[in-house]
């Protein structure tokens, strides 16, 4: 018998349900959790920072809230995808420094992708994760 995915929009993240997607999908029987790309949008709707380092801080905070909602730790992150509008060595260093601190030594698979645009013109960064959860 097939089981439906569990969809989550925890109150500590922006309300994705309003626009038709879930922040987190837990897929049985793995289970794996697919965390939607997090951008520097704040739950309270505050302004997006103009600076990449500040944007990275908000994104990492959102990723942390997603892990907390899953009762998971960075070691359980199976995959990370990073989308950046200005993918250059110096911008990668800004993002990877903050991301490495968040990961705390965990070494998930990671892909960096340069894109021409994200969901809004002021966004420079989006990061998504796949998280392995205990059975």
Automatic annotation (TrEMBL):
This is RidA family protein. It comes from the Bacteria. InterPro entries: RutC-like_sf (IPR035959), YjgF/YER057c/UK114 (IPR006175). Signal peptide: none annotated. Belongs to the RutC family. One of its GO terms (molecular function) is deaminase activity. CDD domains: YjgF_YER057c_UK114_family. GO terms for cellular component: cytosol. Gene3D superfamilies: RutC-like. Pfam families: Ribonuc_L-PSP.
């Amino acid at each position: 018998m097939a089981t439906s995915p569990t969809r989550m929009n925890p109150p500590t993240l922006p309300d994705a349900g309003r626009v038709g997607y879930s922040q987190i999908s837990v897929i049985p029987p793995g289970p794996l959790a697919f965390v939607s790309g997090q951008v520097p949008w704040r739950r309270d709707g505050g302004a997006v920072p103009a600076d990449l380092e500040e944007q990275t801080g908000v994104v990492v905070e959102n990723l942390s809230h997603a892990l907390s909602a899953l009762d998971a730790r960075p070691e359980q992150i199976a995959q990370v995808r990073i989308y950046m509008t200005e993918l250059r060595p110096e911008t990668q260093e800004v993002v990877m420094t903050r991301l490495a601190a968040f990961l705390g030594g965990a070494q998930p698979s990671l892909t960096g992708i340069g894109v021409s645009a994200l969901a809004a013109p002021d966004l420079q960064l989006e990061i998504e994760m796949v998280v392995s959860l205990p059975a």
